[in-house]
Amino acid sequence: MDPPYKFDSDPKRFRNIIAVSMVHVKWCNASGSSKREVIMVDPAEAKRLAAKQMVEIRRKERLKRRREIEAINGAWAMIGLTAGLVIEGYSGKTIIEQLAGYLSAIVHIFIR
Question: Name one GO cellular component term (predicted).
Fold first, then answer.
């Protein structure tokens, strides 16, 4: 029966550390070449490593989502600014005057 990992003929390329039962495989990119490191660890250590990796994955997902939200927010801001500039060119009122007019209209709706 073959072991769950393969040995390469070049001993410098792969390093195998055998401890107890579970296998954790890491891929590293060192100076342009792929390096595979097989570490055999006990189940408690494997759970700790999996939890650590899961925390890192969730952190990356949160960061990616924040960047997406920021890009959407920026796009809406640019659309609003463009609309304000177009209305300014059409009506002659500055963006501040337009906002004051909108605020005044909203206040008059609730005061009547």
Answer: chloroplast thylakoid membrane
DSSP β-bridge partners for residue 33: 30
Residues 57-69 have a mean pLDDT of 95
Candidates 7, 12, 53, 5; CA nearest to 31 is: 12
What pTM was estimated for this model as a whole?
0.48
Asked if residue 52 is part of any domain, the answer here is no
Domain hosting residue 74, numbered range: 62-111
What is the residue whose two structure tokens read 């209305």? 87
Q: Is the CB of residue 37 less than 8 Å from the CB of residue 23?
A: no
Number of C-alpha atoms within 13 angstroms, CB side, residue 100? 5
- 89 lies in some domain: yes
What's the rounded Cα separation, in Å, for the pair 101 and 6? 74
The number of angstroms, rounded, from the C-alpha of 43 to the middle of its chain's C-alpha atoms is 29
